[in-house]
Amino acid sequence: MDKAELYEADVEKVIMDADAIEKAMPATSERASHPDNTHYVIHGTSTRGVTVYCKVCSNYHPQTGLFIEWKLTSFTHK
C-alpha cells in the first residue's frame, strides 16, 4: 500500500474512526462461497488527514454458515 502512501495505521484509523459505513452489496459472484458474504465500504480519514475509503467483505464458511473473517479487498484515496 506504500505506493498510495497508505499504511497499516491508516487502515486501523479508518476502521476505528469511520465517518460512514455503507453496505455495498451481497457477494453474489460465482466465487462467493456463502450467500451471507457481504461487501461494505468504510469512509474515513488517514493519519495524514487525507480522505480515504476501504472495502471489506464478510466471509462465512460455505458448509456451516459460521462467520470466518473479514477480508480487506481494497484501500485507497477517495
Give a summary of the structure in a few sentences.
The protein is mainly β and 78 residues long.
Tell me the number of helical segments per DSSP (H or I, 4 or more residues long): 1
Give the strand content.
Answer: over 45%
Biggest β-sheet: count, sense, barrel?
4 strands, antiparallel
Shape, principal axes of CA atoms: elongated
Roughly how much helix do the residues carry, as a percent range? 10-25%
Low-confidence stretches: none
- Secondary-structure-based class equals mainly beta
The total count of strands amounts to: 4
Secondary-structure element series? HEEEE
Order of strands, main sheet, comes to 1-2-3-4
End-to-end separation: 14 Å
Layout of SSEs?
Elements lengths: L7 H9 L3 E7 L11 E8 L5 E10 L6 E11 L1
Task: Describe the protein.
- Helices cover 12% and strands 46% of the residues.
- The protein has one helix at 8-16, and strands spanning 20-26, 38-45, 51-60, 67-77.
- Strands 1-2-3-4 form a four-stranded antiparallel β-sheet.
- The longest helix is centred in the N-terminal third of the chain and has 9 residues, at 8-16.
- It starts with 7 loop residues before the first helix and ends with a strand.
Characteristic terms for this protein:
78 residues; mainly beta; four-stranded antiparallel beta sheet; 1 helix; 46% strand; elongated
